[in-house]
Amino acid sequence: MDMRTTRRLAIGILIGGSLAAATGFAQEIKFFRIGTGGTAGTYFPIGGLISNAISSAPGSRKCEEGGACGVPGLVATAVATNGSVANINAIQGGTLEAGLTQSDVAYWAYTGTGVYEGKPKVEGLRAIANLYPETIHLVARKGAGIKTVADLKGKRVSLDEPGSGTLIDARIVLGAYGLTEKDVKAEYLKPNASSDRLRDNALDAYFFVGGFPVGAVVELATSVGVELVPISGPEADKLLKEYGFFSKDTIPAETYKGVAETPTISVNALLVTNASQSDDLVYGVTKALWNDNSRKLLDSGHAKGKQIKKETALQGVGIPVHPGAERFYKEAGIKTQ
Question: Which fold has domain 29-131+270-331?
Answer without folding.
Answer: D-Maltodextrin-Binding Protein; domain 2 (3.40.190)
